[in-house]
């Protein structure tokens, strides 16, 4: 909880700080990477730096945390902190690095806001920073402990035992630990970071969801190639994986993390609704495969939207898994339908005549516009917002409280 003096100062300066956060975070990253270039090698995602997405996520999270402290003193914005802590654990953040980030962030705040940052104002925001950092550090310590790894040290080599083309732009890599140790425990729906060396020698991390049952010794990721549209370049890691990684190669993977997962697999009654678009199908096939492996009798509804049946990664596997589950069914939407899926609907996902089972837990994954549209439809259909869990395949720019 903030002290009374700091609360008044943070309240008075929040509009000015929030208004300048874009400039502050731009300056923060520029100075930090200039003076600590090692952080860009093997930790930060330079695609998200270039697009500005990480900067906006950081700014949004600080403003969101400060607002939550003022509006609900004594509580913590759990969803916000949990998402960040899992991402931090997946990229290997350690507690000593919070001092580095503090130094550059507060340097940037002082530079941008100038004389407005009196010693008292700086001390009040310092308190906000360390409350947030403390909450993240303790969550990250627990995540590392649960994963049985030392902080920042969850990397292990895995061998690609099979590479399979799923669609013209999606490939799956089936992986086995190369060090002979058992595969780490994972929950269905979680992701790993993959660490690769780019042609310029810089290491880059990206997250990929485990797209098959995480219960066995083999794990699978399914990677969509990110192609640029002229104005934007092709995605660097997905392109490298598509073009250079094959059977017998090794990949360095983090332990599995992520707070959007099936946390009640033994529950036999609560319905599960899996809603995805495009490559957002990967957490859903992970969850479906796990339910099938457990012989679950839960009601399961799979809803997926894609460009066409040929673009729909893991389509045949989704059908096969639904067949194995006694109370599961699926509905697909395609913008360009094809004869392979005669029962599919045409166009974008429209839940108008789809009955969503009462009391269901809903998992949602796809682009932000897709998730906004579907979440609105689910709320209109009476689904409680509490029951909707969503995964964003990038820095979360759909922060709690801002979801439409
Ligand atoms: C939790 C999580 C789970 C995920 N699971 C999966 C999964 O199962 N399967 C999957 O395929 N992906 C998944 N992703 C996405 C994946 O991590 C990568 O983001 C994706 O593969 C693209 O990475 P890339 O290196 O190819 O692209 P990047 O090089 O990182 O580029 C990403 C985007 O930014 C744009 N960009 C890059 N540079 C610039 C610039 N200078 N200016 C403007 N725009 C720019 C690119 O055009 C591209 O559209 C997941 C992400 C998260 C966070
Ligand atoms: C209080 C301090 C911090 C805050 C508020 C914060 C906030 C965030 C947020 C909001 C994200 C995006 C999460 C998402 O994917 O949705 C993130 C990701 C990340 N953070 Fe932090 N962070 C803090 C400290 C740190 C520290 C100390 C480091 C280590 C140097 C760090 C490194 C990273 C990295 C590498 C990512 C992933 C970046 C990417 O994939 O683009 N963060 N952080």
How many angstroms separate the termini?
29 Å
Q: Unreliable stretches, pLDDT < 50, 5 or more residues?
A: 400-404
Fill in the CATH topology of the largest domain: Globin-like
Kindly report the spatial arrangement of strands forming the biggest sheet.
4-3-6-1-2-5
What is the oligomeric state here? single chain
Rg over C-alpha atoms, rounded to the nearest angstrom: 22 Å
CATH class of the largest domain: Mainly Alpha
Provide the domain count.
Answer: 3
Query: Number of helical runs?
Result: 10
Shape descriptor: globular
Helix content: 40-55%
Bound molecules: flavin-adenine dinucleotide, protoporphyrin IX containing FE
Order of helices and strands: HHHHHHEEEEEHEEHEHEEEHE
Biggest sheet, open or closed, and with what strands and sense? 6 strands, antiparallel
CATH architecture of the largest domain: Orthogonal Bundle
Determine the strand fraction and express it as a percent band: 15-25%
Structural class, by secondary structure, is alpha/beta
Query: CATH H-level name of the largest domain... which superfamily?
Result: Globins
Average of pLDDT: 94
InterPro entries: FAD-bd_FR_type, FNR_nucleotide-bd, Globin, Globin-like_sf, Globin/Proto, OxRdtase_FAD/NAD-bd, Riboflavin_synthase-like_b-brl
GO molecular function: 2 iron, 2 sulfur cluster binding; FAD binding; heme binding; metal ion binding; nitric oxide dioxygenase NAD(P)H activity; oxygen binding; oxygen carrier activity
Catalytic activity: 2 nitric oxide + NADH + 2 O2 = 2 nitrate + NAD(+) + H(+); 2 nitric oxide + NADPH + 2 O2 = 2 nitrate + NADP(+) + H(+)
Keywords: Heme, Iron, Metal-binding, NAD, Oxygen transport, Transport
């Amino acid at each position: 909880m903030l002290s009374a003096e700091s609360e008044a100062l943070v309240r008075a300066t929040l509009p000015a700080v929030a208004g300048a956060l874009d400039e502050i975070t731009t300056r923060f990253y520029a100075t930090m990477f200039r003076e600590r270039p090692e952080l860009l090698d093997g930790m930060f995602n330079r695609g998200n730096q270039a697009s500005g997405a990480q900067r906006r996520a950081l700014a949004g999270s600080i403003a969101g945390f400060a607002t939550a402290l003022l509006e609900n003193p004594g509580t913590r914005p759990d969803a916000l902190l949990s998402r960040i802590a899992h991402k931090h654990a997946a990229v290997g953040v350690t507690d000593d690095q919070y001092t580095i980030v503090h130094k550059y962030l507060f340097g940037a705040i002082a530079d941008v806001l100038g004389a407005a940052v009196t010693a008292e104002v700086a001390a009040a925001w310092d308190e906000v920073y360390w409350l947030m950092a403390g909450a993240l550090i303790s969550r990250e310590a627990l995540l590392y402990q649960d994963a049985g790894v030392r902080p920042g040290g969850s990397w292990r080599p895995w061998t690609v035992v099979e590479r399979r083309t799923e669609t013209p732009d999606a490939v799956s890599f089936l992986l086995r630990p190369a060090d002979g140790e058992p595969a780490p425990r994972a929950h269905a729906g979680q992701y790993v970071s993959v660490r690769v060396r780019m042609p310029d020698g810089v290491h880059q991390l990206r997250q990929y969801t485990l797209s098959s049952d995480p219960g066995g010794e083999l794990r699978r990721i399914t990677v969509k190639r990110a192609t640029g549209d002229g104005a934007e370049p092709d995605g660097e890691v997905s392109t490298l994986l598509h073009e250079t990684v094959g059977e017998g190669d090794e990949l360095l993977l983090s332990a599995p993390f992520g707070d959007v997962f099936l946390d009640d697999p033994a529950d036999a009654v609560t319905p599960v609704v899996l809603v995805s678009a495009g490559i957002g199908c990967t957490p859903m096939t992970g969850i479906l495969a796990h339910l099938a492996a457990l012989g679950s009798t839960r009601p399961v509804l799979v809803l997926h939207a894609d460009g066409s049946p040929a673009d729909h990664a893991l389509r045949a596997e989704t059908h096969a898994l639904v067949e194995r589950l006694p109370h599961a069914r699926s509905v697909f939407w395609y913008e360009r339908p094809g004869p392979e899926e005669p029962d599919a609907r045409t166009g974008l996902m429209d839940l108008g005549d789809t009955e969503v089972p009462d009391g269901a837990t809903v998992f949602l994954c796809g682009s932000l516009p897709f998730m906004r549209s579907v979440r609105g439809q689910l709320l209109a259909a009476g689904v409680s917002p509490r029951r909707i869990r969503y995964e964003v395949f990038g820095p979360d720019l759909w922060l709690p409280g801002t979801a439409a």
